[in-house]
């Protein structure tokens, strides 16, 4: 989508090309629960959108936008039940009513048929204190694109307030585990919207599935599949539109931890030969495999820097797992982490300035964020068993797996001030966050 920035932003939603995924329905959607909001959360009221013909839209786009913003912990959503009125245009707003309820920011909007079977949605962001419109927006949505329209509204508002692109049209991948006994356990690789809605199973097996990784264009997933009976692990690349699978590494021993290069042409992975686990890079065009590390220790969990010049990875070459860095072509290795008892599972932020990791301390395993400019480390999750950090595509939040009373996914802002959980029946693990989606 392209934004045409005049006084109003026009989003050509009807031209949005939504990717088809060759999948089967998953069992259940993740449920989002806001567990902690920022102390400086932005107060905002999003009024239910009206209709020019008095007909209720089949999807409540205003509620979707509200849920999106609330899930970040950066916005404090004014409850609908407390609204004294529900205007749908700026000329219907009584600003005094909103000021008495301490509402600083107000969103009002409406929808009407666009003559093409879809809807034209118009909405305004209002400054209640000043009693005026700050920005107006218009977008077109096809008949089956209203949920995406709600996410787009949230993206526009998020960017207006934070200066960063929203991630509400992105998708996530994760692994679910159901079944109480070994012979009944079922592993599923699932792709869903960022908030867990519209889940679809990409691959399922009675054997473990691990380490999903998105291609930079969001069209493919790499992951690790096991055949326990044969004692074989495989790194696979699956096209989400066709379901076609390509195996790039397979055999006994370790074949795991795939990570895409930023250009999408190479995949870093871990292979073991002669008992040693090292980092390799597979060229998807030539089919050639290049060994980057040559250590008798365990080198694994590679992560590419956004410019493609460096690879961070986990190694126990110093005694306990720590994060090291090298050129993406191999060569000299530099240790990055020293805090805590151990550090592992690195993930670069999209701008390359931060590194997320799992840090072990006396409080268990928690998600930490390192500022690569000064090596300062901030612990952002509560533990005691947190794993698999993955940055949001705008770099403002981190998705991770957490174990406790329930095994679920969670998101946390990079400063640790805002948290939410995504859970369902059974275990949810191994999350990966895809690209922006627009």
UniProtKB/TrEMBL annotation:
InterPro entries: 6-blade_b-propeller_TolB-like (IPR011042), Tol-Pal_TolB (IPR014167), TolB_N (IPR007195), WD40 (IPR011659)
Keywords assigned: Cell cycle, Cell division, Periplasm, Signal
GO cellular component assignments: periplasmic space
GO biological process, one term: cell division
Cross-referenced Gene3D superfamilies: TolB, C-terminal domain (2.120.10.30), TolB, N-terminal domain (3.40.50.10070)
Top-level lineage group: Bacteria
Subunit structure: The Tol-Pal system is composed of five core proteins: the inner membrane proteins TolA, TolQ and TolR, the periplasmic protein TolB and the outer membrane protein Pal. They form a network linking the inner and outer membranes and the peptidoglycan layer.
Family (UniProt): Belongs to the TolB family.
The protein's role, per its UniProt record: Part of the Tol-Pal system, which plays a role in outer membrane invagination during cell division and is important for maintaining outer membrane integrity.
UniProt name for this protein: Tol-Pal system protein TolB
Phylogenetic classification of the source organism: Bacteria, Pseudomonadati, Pseudomonadota, Gammaproteobacteria, Salinisphaerales
């Amino acid at each position: 989508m392209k934004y045409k920035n005049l006084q109003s932003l026009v989003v050509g939603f009807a031209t949005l090309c939504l990717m088809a995924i060759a999948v089967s329905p998953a069992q259940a959607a993740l449920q989002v629960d806001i567990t902690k909001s920022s102390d400086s959360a932005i107060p905002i009221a999003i009024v239910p959108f009206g209709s020019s013909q008095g007909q209720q839209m089949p999807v409540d786009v205003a509620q979707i936008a509200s849920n999106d913003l609330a899930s970040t912990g950066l916005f404090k959503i004014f409850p609908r039940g407390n609204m004294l009125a529900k205007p749908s245009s700026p000329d219907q707003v009584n600003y005094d009513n909103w000021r008495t309820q301490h509402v600083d920011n107000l969103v009002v909007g409406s929808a009407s048929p666009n003559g093409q079977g879809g809807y034209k949605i118009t909405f305004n962001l209002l400054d209640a204190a000043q009693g005026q419109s700050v920005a107006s927006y218009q977008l077109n949505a096809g008949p089956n694109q209203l949920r995406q329209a709600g996410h787009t509204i949230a993206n526009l508002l998020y960017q207006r307030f934070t200066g960063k692109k929203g991630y509400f049209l992105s998708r996530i991948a994760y692994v679910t585990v159901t079944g109480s006994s070994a012979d009944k356990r079922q592993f599923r690789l699932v792709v869903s919207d960022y908030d867990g809605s519209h889940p679809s199973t990409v691959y399922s097996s009675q054997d473990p599935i691990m380490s999903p990784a998105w291609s930079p264009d969001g069209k493919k997933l790499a992951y690790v599949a096991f055949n326990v009976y044969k004692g074989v692990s495989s790194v696979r690349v699956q096209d989400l539109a066709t379901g076609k699978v390509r195996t790039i590494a397979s055999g006994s021993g370790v074949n795991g931890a795939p990570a895409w290069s930023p250009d999408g042409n190479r995949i870093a992975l871990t292979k073991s030969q002669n008992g040693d686990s090292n980092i390799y890079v597979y060229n998807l065009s030539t089919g050639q495999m290049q060994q980057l590390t040559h250590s008798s220790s365990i080198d694994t969990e590679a992560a590419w820097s956004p410019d493609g010049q460096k690879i961070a990875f986990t190694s126990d070459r110093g005694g306990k797992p720590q994060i090291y860095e090298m050129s993406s072509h191999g060569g000299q290795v530099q240790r990055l982490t020293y805090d805590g008892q151990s550090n592992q599972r690195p993930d670069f932020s999209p701008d390359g300035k931060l590194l997320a990791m799992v840090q072990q301390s006396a409080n268990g395993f928690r998600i930490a964020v390192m500022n690569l400019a000064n090596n300062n480390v901030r612990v952002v999750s509560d533990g005691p068993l947190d794993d698999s950090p993955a940055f949001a595509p705008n770099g403002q939040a981190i998705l991770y797996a957490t174990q406790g009373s329930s095994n679920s996914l969670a998101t946390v802002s990079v400063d640790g001030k805002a948290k939410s959980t995504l859970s369902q029946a059974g275990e949810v693990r191994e999350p990966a966050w895809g690209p922006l989606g627009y």
